[in-house]
Amino acid sequence: MDGNGRWAESHGVPKFEGHRQGVKAVRTVVRHCVEIGIETLTLFAFSTENNKRTEEEVGWLFKLFLATLKLELNKLNKANIQLEIVGDLTIFNSKLQTAIRNGVELLSGNSGMKLVVAANYGGRWDLVQATRKIAEIYSHGEIDLDEIDENLVESCLSFEHNSVDLLIRTSGEQRISNFMLWHLAYSEMYFSNTLWPDFDETELDLAIENYQMRDRRFGIRS
């Protein structure tokens, strides 16, 4: 979800307003994904690199995350949406960590679309923490070296779903920026010039229509 800051600059408003408008775009996209039958939607909300922004902006983003959780949980519950928060959550204060745990628990019994929010997440971080898990398992003598395979690596990664059908990036940038490095191995990618606050149902439909025209080969045939 890229382009909140540039949206704010182009509209002559503070950057924080761009992030607020970005939250509105999240509501629109989540609602539309439910309507069209998407099974899992993952949103890259806050990367490990974002934590290097100014203390003021990072603090404001954390407050926005907390406020949005509190405001949207009942709506998500009514829509039968499941919630998963993925990333190194230790950097968040106790109030936000508690809100995250409570929100995930509240929606855990739902059976509809799974909404995954990557918060303080990075693809390299995910691979490192998975490697540490495997090293610990091996050091305890629970596995042999020849048992370390793709299935084991996938089981140690943060995401329950280890493949992505379609990656959408907004704002005209054409890179994955350390997002889900393992999971994107054979994903289709769609780059939209639209800034995230302006990304709506029409833009999402265009991305999906483009995806539906792709011939996915997974490296098996030319």
Features:
222 residues; Undecaprenyl pyrophosphate synthetase; two-stranded parallel ribbon; globular
Describe this structure in words.
The chain is an alpha/beta fold and 222 residues long. It has one domain: Decaprenyl diphosphate synthase-like (Undecaprenyl pyrophosphate synthetase), CATH 3.40.1180. 46% of the residues lie in helices and 13% in strands. It has seven helices and five strands; from the N terminus they run H-H-E-H-E-H-E-H-H-E-E-H. It has a three-stranded parallel β-sheet, sandwiched between helices. Helix 4 links the parallel strand 2 (82-86) and strand 3. The longest helix is centred in the N-terminal third of the chain and has 24 residues, at 55-78. The two termini are 32 Å apart. The mean pLDDT is 93.
Summary?
This protein is α/β, with parallel strands linked by helices and 222 residues long. The protein contains seven helices and five strands.
Topology:
Blueprint: H1 4-10, H2 15-36, E1 40-47, H3 55-78, E2 82-86, H4 94-106, E3 114-121, H5 123-139, H6 150-156, E4 166-169, E5 188-191, H7 201-212
Parallel strand pairs: 1-3, 2-3, 4-5
